[in-house]
Q: What sequence folds into this?
């Protein structure tokens, strides 16, 4: 489980350290993909395989499934951490997330999100403001 918020700077080669407490979970590799919001989503390889399996076993029509698979898999990058626990952020993903120098790595349960620091602050505020409403709507469904 990934949780917490961590601030890092990107080095001149586009690398960012991943939080030390998560490196064991990520030592088999990490898969980076564009997030729905303007961020990068990082999955441990084991979680990525679960996601891939779930996407191939659904009841989605074949044309929708092909489109979804293109969106998810064609834009993903499988990377390994270097000896210092860093990962190089691919340029297309940095451009998608509008990442410049400083990032926030935020735990999101079974994945991490990598945000440009300036974009993270308003997203965090909005998420915190809406969390109560979201919980109440989930409770009303039960």
A:
């Amino acid at each position: 489980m990934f949780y917490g918020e961590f601030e890092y700077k990107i080095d001149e080669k586009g690398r960012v350290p991943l939080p030390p407490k998560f490196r064991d979970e990520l030592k088999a590799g990490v898969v980076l993909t564009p997030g729905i919001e303007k961020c990068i989503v990082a999955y441990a390889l084991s979680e990525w395989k679960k996601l891939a399996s779930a996407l191939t076993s659904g009841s989605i029509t074949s044309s929708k499934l092909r489109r979804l698979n293109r969106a998810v898999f064609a834009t993903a990058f499988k990377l390994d951490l270097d000896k210092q626990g860093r990962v190089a952020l691919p340029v297309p993903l940095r451009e998608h997330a509008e990442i410049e120098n400083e990032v926030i790595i935020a735990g999101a349960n079974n994945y991490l999100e990598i945000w440009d620091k300036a974009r993270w602050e308003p997203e965090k505020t909005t998420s915190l403001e809406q969390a109560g409403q979201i919980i109440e709507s989930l409770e009303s469904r039960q």
The chain has one domain: 5-117. The chain has a mean pLDDT of 92. The radius of gyration is 16 Å.
